[in-house]
Amino acid sequence: xxxxxxxxxxxxxxxxxxxxxxxxxxxxxxxxxxxxxxxxxxxxxxxxxxxxxxxxxxxxxxxxxxxxxxxxxxxxxxxxxxxxxxxxxxxxxxxxxxxxxxxxxxxxxxxxxxxxxxxxxxxxxxxxxxxxxxxxxxxxxxxxxxxxxxxxxxxxxxx
Length: 159
Ligand code: HEC
Prior knowledge:
The protein has helices at 4-58, 65-78, 101-104, 106-127, 132-153.
């Protein structure tokens, strides 16, 4: 018969092995979940800043040049932060509304992200003019990229 010390050692050794295997699995999906959380956060902050610009362009809120520029500058600063939120391994069904083609049609996805960056920088620049007749088309061009990308790369159940 094994000494109880030895059997305890064997048991704790096998528990350790099991938890190590579980840990390596979790590490992969943790990184994926963190990326999903990160990109959701960036999109939420972008959405927060787009919404008052939308209201001003739409005439639902009085146009305030300084506020508009502040929001446009923020979106321009956030746009380049999106790409790193879509690393390989961050397509986790049920956790993300990104479609799998974000990873399989990568060149097209990245081109849209680039366009988003360029147009958000353009809006920030144009917003300094304080001229709504110039700002409106630059704003419309920017949100067109949101629509184009969501249509192709995002599940339809939300915006
Ligand atoms: C290049 C592609 C692309 C562009 C451009 C883009 N989005 Fe998205 N957006 C996505 C994808 C993909 C998701 C799904 C992310 C996920 O669930 O992991 C998403 C999700 C979101 C979400 C939901 C986040 C959540 O927590 O579920 C919001 C809000 C959002 N986008 C707003 C916008 C707005 C506003 C713009 C434009 C000003 C924009 N997006 C531009 C691809 C894009």
